[in-house]
Design brief:
Helices cover about 40% and strands about 15% of the residues. By secondary structure, the chain is α/β, with parallel strands linked by helices. The chain has two domains: about 5-20 and about 290-385, Aspartate Aminotransferase, domain 1 (Alpha-Beta Complex), CATH 3.90.1150; about 35-285, Aspartate Aminotransferase, domain 2 (3-Layer(aba) Sandwich), CATH 3.40.640. α2 runs antiparallel to α9 (about 275-290), α3 packs across α9 and α10 (about 290-310) runs parallel beside α12 (about 370-385). The protein starts with a helix and ends with a helix.
C-alpha cells in the first residue's frame, strides 16, 4: 500500500503526534475508533445500567465467531479469559487432575513467565530447550521428549528475542508423537498466520493488549474439542454450566453440575463486556486494513529498522532474521560495551519508547510506525553513544 495510506492510519493513533512508540510488544496504543467504542459503551452503562447486558453478551459471542474465522475454528472453541496466566493455569490444573502417572512437559528457555509458571507452580516437571543463536529447532525441541512427556508448551513468537517459531512443523512433530501442543500466541496473534487445525494446536492463548490494539481486554483462549473431552475445565461458575432446559441459570442446589461441552465452560462468570466491545471495534478496524497488509507492513518496517541499526557499529542485533519465516514485529539488540538500560532511559527523554528485556534493548514495530520513527530511534542511539 502507498505511503499516504499508512500516514492516514497514523492519524488514528494520537500517540504518534509526540512519541516514536516501539513498545507495542508491551502494550499497543488504541486507535481512535476503539477509544470511541469504549466511551460509547460506558456511556450506555451510565445512562441505562444493565439494560443492554444481554445484547452486549451476544455481540461478544459474534466477535468470537470472527476471531475463530481468523484461526480456522469456530466460536464454540473460543473463550475470553482475564489473561494468559489464567489460561495456562487452567491447562496446568486440568493436566494435573486427569493425568494419573508422573509426567513432564517440554518448553523453551526464553519463555515469558505466563507460559511456564502455571506448570511449575503445580509441580509439573518442565524440561527446557536451550536456544542456538536465538533459535529453537524442531529437532532440539523433540530431543527432550521422553516416554513421560505429555505436551510441548511454547510461544509462537518469543517475547524477548522476537524469534518466530515454525509452529506448523513443530505441531506436526508433536502430533506424530501423540503429544499435546500448547501455544502462547501472544506476540504473534493476530498479525502472523495461525491455523489451529493445520498446526495441530490443542490449546492456544493470546493476550490481546499487545497486538490486539484494544487495551487490557484479556486473553483469547482456544481449546480443541478433543482436548476438552480429555481435560475439562478444572473450575466452574454460573455461566460455565449447563442450565436446565428453558432456564437461563441453575438455581437448584445439591444437584450434579454439568459444564458446557464447548469453550463456554471457561466463561466462569460476568466479565467486562465494555472492553470486549472495544476489542470488537479494534478487530473491525484492523480487518478493514487487512491482516495481510498489516503483516507485510510490519515486516517491511522491521527490515528497515534492522538495516538502520546495522549502520551503527556499536549495535549487535540478537533477533534471528536471516529467514523471512522467523521474523516477527520484535527486534532485540544491545550496545556491546554501553549500558542498555541507560540508553532506553535516554531515548524515553527524547520521546522514543523502547524497553529492556533479558538485559537487551527491545523495540517492536507496529503498522502505525513510519520511517521518521525509525530515524528518531537510530538518531537517539547515536546521540547516546556520543555522550561522554
Amino acid at each position: 500500500m502507498h505511503t499516504d495510506f499508512w500516514e492516514n492510519i497514523r492519524k488514528d493513533f494520537k500517540i504518534c503526534k509526540k512519541l516514536a512508540y516501539f513498545h507495542s510488544a508491551g502494550l499497543s496504543p488504541i486507535p481512535q475508533a476503539v477509544y470511541k467504542a469504549i466511551r460509547k459503551s460506558y456511556k450506555r452503562l451510565y445512562e441505562v445500567g444493565d439494560l443492554d447486558w444481554h445484547n452486549d453478551l451476544d455481540e461478544s459471542m459474534k466477535l468470537l465467531g470472527s476471531l475463530g474465522d481468523h484461526l480456522n475454528t469456530s466460536a464454540e472453541n473460543l473463550a475470553l479469559l482475564p489473561n494468559t496466566s489464567m489460561a495456562m493455569s487452567m491447562v496446568a490444573l486440568s493436566l494435573k487432575r486427569h493425568i494419573n502417572s508422573p509426567f513432564n512437559i517440554v518448553s523453551t528457555e526464553d519463555e515469558f513467565p505466563a507460559t511456564n509458571i502455571p506448570f511449575e507452580y503445580q509441580d509439573i516437571p518442565v524440561k527446557y530447550v536451550q536456544p542456538a543463536n536465538g533459535r529453537y529447532s524442531i529437532d532440539a525441541m523433540m530431543s527432550l521428549v521422553d516416554e513421560s512427556t505429555k505436551a510441548i508448551v511454547c510461544s509462537y513468537v518469543q517475547y524477548s528475542s522476537g524469534f518466530r517459531q515454525d509452529i506448523e512443523s513443530l505441531g506436526k512433530a508433536a502430533n506424530k508423537k501423540g503429544l499435546l501442543f500448547i501455544v502462547n500466541a501472544t506476540q504473534g496473534f493476530p498479525f502472523f498466520p495461525i491455523d489451529v487445525e493445520k498446526m495441530h494446536i490443542d490449546v492456544m492463548a493470546a493476550s490481546l493488549h499487545k497486538w490486539g490494539c484494544a487495551g487490557h481486554v484479556g486473553s483469547l483462549f482456544y481449546t480443541s474439542e478433543s482436548y476438552r473431552k480429555a481435560f475439562p475445565s478444572p473450575l466452574a461458575g454460573w455461566l460455565s454450566v449447563k442450565p436446565p432446559e428453558d432456564e437461563y441459570i441453575i438455581t437448584a442446589k445439591g444437584q450434579k453440575v454439568n459444564i458446557h461441552p464447548t469453550a463456554m465452560q471457561y466463561q466462569y462468570g460476568t466479565s467486562n463486556l465494555q472492553s470486549v466491545l472495544g476489542l470488537k471495534a479494534a478487530w473491525t478496524y484492523m480487518s478493514g486494513i487487512g491482516f495481510e497488509n498489516i503483516r507485510q507492513r510490519v515486516l517491511e518496517l522491521v527490515t528497515q529498522t534492522i538495516a538502520h541499526l546495522n549502520q551503527i557499529q556499536e549495535v549487535e542485533i540478537h533477533t534471528p532474521h536471516s529467514h523471512a519465516g522467523e521474523q516477527s514485529a520484535i527486534i532485540s539488540f544491545d550496545l556491546r560495551q554501553r549500558n542498555n538500560q541507560a540508553c532506553v532511559e535516554y531515548l524515553a527523554k527524547k520521546g522514543v519508547i523502547a524497553a529492556i528485556r533479558n538485559d537487551n534493548i527491545r523495540v517492536s514495530c507496529n503498522y502505525f510506525t513510519n520511517l521518521d520513527d525509525i530515524n528518531r530511534l537510530t538518531q537517539g542511539i547515536r546521540e547516546f553513544l556520543n555522550k561522554p
